[in-house]
Structure formats: C-alpha cells, structure tokens
Amino acid sequence: MASFYRMSLNQDEPHFLHACSLCRKPLGFNSDIFMYRGNTPFCSKECRQEQIQIDEATEKSQKLSSSSRSLMKSESKTSSTTTTTTSARKNVRTGTVVVA
Which residue(s) pair with 41 in the sheet? Predict the structure, then answer.
C-alpha cells in the first residue's frame, strides 16, 4: 500500500491524497481521509463541510446571477414590444396585466 502513495507518473506533482484540499494539512498514512466530489480529500469532517458550504454558496450565487440576467433580458424584450388591441384600440405592453 505504501508504494501506491509513492508511485506517480510525474515526480514533480504530489499525489492528490498527500494534503487536505482546504487547509493543506498533510494527510497521514494511517489516518482517516474524508472525500468529497470524487477525488477531493479532506483531513476532517469540518474541512469537508466548510468546502461543501463554499460550493453551495458559489452555486447559489451563480444561479441567482444567471436567473437575474435572463429575467432582465425577458423584461427588456416585453417592454420594448407593444401591441394594439383591436377591440379597445389601446396600446398594451405584452407581459403586463390590464385591469378594466
């Protein structure tokens, strides 16, 4: 098993299980390693949980920014186009509610 940790195709790059991905603390040979998203090692549950929270916050902000961009695009399209109704002869913006 020790040869697995030492075996590497490129000697310049350390093996991915040598250090915690968050705090860079060296991972011991005979210690627990907490994995996340495939091959991301962490030295403790706390480090792994912190990374999960960071990832969730990043994904949430990306979803909010992309949804706000698409909302702004759809609003600009609907506000720029107007139609004339034949029965009332009033200009009405598409996407708005008309109350009589």
Answer: 35
Average confidence (pLDDT) per 10 residues, the chain, 100 residues: 48 74 90 90 95 94 80 61 54 64
The DSSP result for the chain, as a single string, is -HHHHH--SSTTSPPTTSB-TTT-PBPPTTS--EEETTTEEESSHHHHHHHHHHHHHHHHHHHHHHHHHHHHHHHHHHHH-EEE-TTT--EEETT-----
pTM over cut 0.70: no
Query: Within 10 Å of residue 9's Cβ, how many Cβ atoms?
Result: 5
